[in-house]
Amino acid sequence: MVLNVHKMRSSVFQIHHAMKKHYSIAPKGTAKASDLFSDEQRRQRENVGRIEKIEVRYLGLPHDTTLVMNRELSTPYDCARHIGEKYCQQSALALVDNKTPWDMRRPLRDSCTLQLLNFTSPEPHIANKAFWRSCSFLLGAVLQASFKPEAGLFLHSFPKPNSKYGACGITFYADTFANSRLIAVKSGSFVHDIVLAEEHWNPTVSELRALSIEMVKLAQKDLPIERLDVSSELALEMFHDNPFKREQIPSVAGQNNGLVTVYRVGDHLDISKGPMMSSTGLLGRCTISASHPVKEGSESGKHFYRMQGVALPNVLRIGHFAYEILENRSRKMNPAKLPNEPFEDAVAEQVA
Fold first, then answer.
1. Residue 335 DSSP SS3
2. Model confidence, pTM
3. Predicted local distance difference test score (pLDDT) of residue 31
4. Nearest to 116 by CA among 166, 64, 74
5. Which backbone phi and psi does 187 adopt, to 5 degrees?
6. Which of 35, 54, 257, 346 could be joined to 341 by an S-S link, Cβ 3.0–4.6 Å?
7. What DSSP element (H or E) covers 26?
8. Where is the TGS domain (predicted)?
9. 225-244: pLDDT as tens digits
10. Alpha-carbon span 101 to 95, nearest angstrom
């Protein structure tokens, strides 16, 4: 097989040209918020005080076992390290006491039973929800790092995963009899709603491809996705430069005992109920497929857009034809709650 080197170079040139024309890969204004996150994370750990032990009863392969861990310090990820390295790499989420989905890097509060969830189990719907919520979060990180300041970008929110299908409309599950992967599709995309200064922004195929490449690069870095519950006052300081987040924070805190759950990947922060998958390395094939203008609620200098994409976990492999079907479905306008709907009425839908 002979590769057309000129075509390959042309394609790469077009991608880089698109990025230079419309985007800037350097992060902007995120370092201070990330420092606040780190300081609060350190403060909470130091406030634990006297270390108390808890018993964590692990249920699963290679065998059930009981681990003695540290209350408010040890996480499911720490437990996975005791069980085996591959469980650290493959586990997307934990299930506490057989009922509560739990972030892998979230400290455990009490003695409990623990199961580690991944994307290849016969019933992975809980992990699927975390996967699609995480994809929306990571898309926000890529968008925040990519647009130039003059674009006037603000991240607004991302809707919660579809509760019936597990993940913005796509559910992956293993067929244990045929030893294959099956896919059920409903709405077909993950979403992040943004605001731009430009009224008629219509990204080219090359620009969308460039954003897809940035998602893959983020996955290859295998960065941890961290969770932290903070006061509404600190959350307002973290998101001081985003008027839409500042508007959302009081309502979010009001439904969560005055606390706001913040997630971090790299230096990027966002608000989400969670849980999310443990690291970016669990993201596999990914396509940022569409941008839809949302006319209702837009005003001069602030125009809403719904960014959409489709992705697969890194352990899932499907053929080109099947993936192309998913890509085509993901381009249709996702019917989830729109960002311009009254926030008080739609907070549960808008903040995943």
1. coil
2. 0.85
3. 87
4. 64
5. -80, -30
6. 346
7. none
8. 73-117
9. 999 999 999 999 999 999 99
10. 5
